[in-house]
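This part of the workshop introduces the protein records we will be handling. Getting from the letters to the tokens is the skill we practise here. An example says more than a description, so a record of this kind follows:
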Amino acid sequence: MRYYELLVEYTEPQLVQLFGAKAVAHFKQEFPNKKITPDQLVSAVTKLDRNHAFWLLGNYARYAPATADNQVRGIARYEDIGSRAVPALRLFDKLVRTGKIPPESRDINKYKSLGQLKDAIEPFVEKVKPESNKELAEAQEQTFYKTGQATLLYNDAQVKVVIPKTKEASCYFGVNTRWCTAARESNQFEFYKDQGPLYIILIKAENKRYQFHFAVSQYMDDQDNEINPRELADKYPVLWQIFDPVCKAAHTIILQTNPSEADQITAVQQDGRALRFIKNPSEAVQMATVQQYAWAIQYIKNPSEAVQIAAVRRAGWAIQYIKNPSEAVQIAAVQQTGWATEFIKNPSEAVQLAAVRQDRRAIQFIKNPSKAVQLAARRRWF
């Protein structure tokens, strides 16, 4: 079987049916204030790479961060589709055509995350060799500082912290990482710089690099996997001292020491992802978060029914992050959007009726709808 026979073409309506709702739910996590429909999102991704639209949309829709039991699944950020995934897929195609990828590894659908795809092509990517002449390398680095292309924020025997000011500096200090801000193609440095400074952290003994961007709550290792920055700061306490004033200025609690409840509420109202880094948030903090960022309920352990209802009233699709939601929560979700039915197992007739009354198209997610539900959907049509 030839490689291209493994690629199944799907029409845009089919892709909308398969991934539209979940992909939009993920998109709204990243961009809560942007409006986009499933058709628009599928169309945008298809234009980037029609041959691999199924893989791209499927992985974006099914994204899940790493846990103690599982690795990262899918594609974490929308920007990664164009800046990292599409170039990786093009290289993968080339490696298949030239026979470098063995036959048993040519089915693109076996790769369940962007990281797995990157691992498959990594052996064939040319690495940038570190400068062998130490004096020359130091001179090159100093040039970035002297010309204002980078700022050396901190430097000792263990840790170096640099703020790149240009794409060239970002590529230099991010060498051999998987960051889109250090990429040779479709580099995203300017996009991030416009939102706030990037901080590149070099742990010298380990020769490990990390990139923090407080404005968008991204904290990545050199493989572009998300980390908990508190764990790194606990290992290297000087990072607490460096970033405490930065976090206070940015109204983020991630590396603040002992933030008050008011500070926590300010932080989560600006970015719901901040909730991940608050231990035992009060119900007031939880409410402040989900009332603005419904998807953040996934970061709350055992949320109360009141918090659950507040989240789904903000965005019905947030019910996918709630374990065993009550009928009251289910009804609140489908009343906000009938499409939330897709994320409800075995909805009661009351939930089904509420869903099709809100949006008749929700009937597509209901198995064996009763006559009453069918009639309600039909009346909604007319």
